[in-house]
Amino acid sequence: MGSPVDLHIVNPKGGIRLFFRFIILKRTPEERFDPHGQFQRIKRLDHVINTLGAVLALLAGQVFSNEPIAVGLVCILVIMICLKLKMGDTIGLTLVTVIAVMEASGQWQFALTRFSLSLIGIVSAFLINILLFPPKPKQQFIGQIQNTFDRMSLLMRTAISDEIKENVFRDKKRELEDAIKSLSSKYQLFEEEQKKMKRASFSQTRLLVVYKQMLNALRKGREVLDAVEEHYFQSDREAGTDRIFDEQLERLIKFHEHILLKFEEKLKPNCLEASQLDQENTAFIQGVLSLAIEEPEGRLRLSIVGATMYDYGYQLERLNRLVEHYHKTDDDESGFWASWIKK
């Protein structure tokens, strides 16, 4: 619980002093740690911004009454303050409070009642989410990563064979792009939280690096789809070219899937898989470049697709190393504490 803030009204002739008494929660559901203690969301001050908007509205209502121009100026001021404090997502609620309070200019008891109802709603939502539906940011993020990968896997496995209808492919690809944008927004929250935390633990930092590489791998996969759509079918291809590219995409997707399973500790260790993929990826790009050299005019575009696929494979290898290092470090830490307790 935070410090309560008092609010009372002095006679309007002598001026108005406003201090609202309400309970300020320390954190919203997004700020709580996940079950494994890995993450804490950014501290959000929705209720404070809302209070500030109400105070500005009351002061402006006392000076300018409820003139439309005055209401507009106060709304602009509130928007500027929210953007300055990087609280853009609270603008809507704050503007509703400002307009409701200024419309009741001169009827301060009614204005206070409207504002109190807004605060009760905010606090009630916090309590319900904290007590009844506690958030699990880590599980939610990984679940969204898996769902996004499933969408991308379907598109990549049918990109070369061209089995999906064009309109369906475009719709699925648009859904994939929206999912990646959503993941990027969530990752930015994790990153901002990391910067604002006074003492970020080493495990949190390592997990954040893994999340970032997971997101990079998905972006590279989407770039492969873009390259195939823009360059592959417009190039001259031999009879076995489709099979070579299709098999390589299948290897990359399978490796990506195994990495995600490995992160969730659902897969048996396989040290040879990464080295085999590295060799296959190198042989693949060398073969594509040799085809482009033989006939540069008709097959140059194939090298663009091949290079994009090679980069995707490289990002997967890097993600695999990060996941292995993450679990290895966790095992070392667990072993250290277990030996310490035995002593």
Attribute tags:
343 residues; mainly alpha; disordered N terminus
Q: In summary, what is this structure?
A:
By secondary structure, the protein is an all-alpha fold. The chain contains 10 helices and no strands. Helix content is about 75%, strand content about 0%.
Helix content: over 70%
Low-confidence stretches: 1-44, 335-343
Distance between the termini: 39 Å
Secondary structure: number of strands: 0
Gyration radius over CA: 28 Å
Q: What is the approximate shape?
A: elongated
For the sheet with most strands, the description reads: none
* Number of alpha- plus pi-helical segments: 10
What amount of the residues lies in strands? under 5%
Structural class assignment: mainly alpha
Q: What value does the average pLDDT take?
A: 76
List the secondary-structure elements in sequence, H or E: HHHHHHHHHH
Report on this model:
By secondary structure, the chain is mainly alpha-helical. Helix content is 73%, strand content 0%. It has helices at 46-64, 68-84, 91-103, 108-131, 137-157, 166-196, 202-232, 241-263, 271-294, 296-342. Helix 2 (68-84) packs antiparallel against helix 3, helix 5 runs antiparallel to helix 6 (166-196) and helix 5 runs parallel beside helix 7.
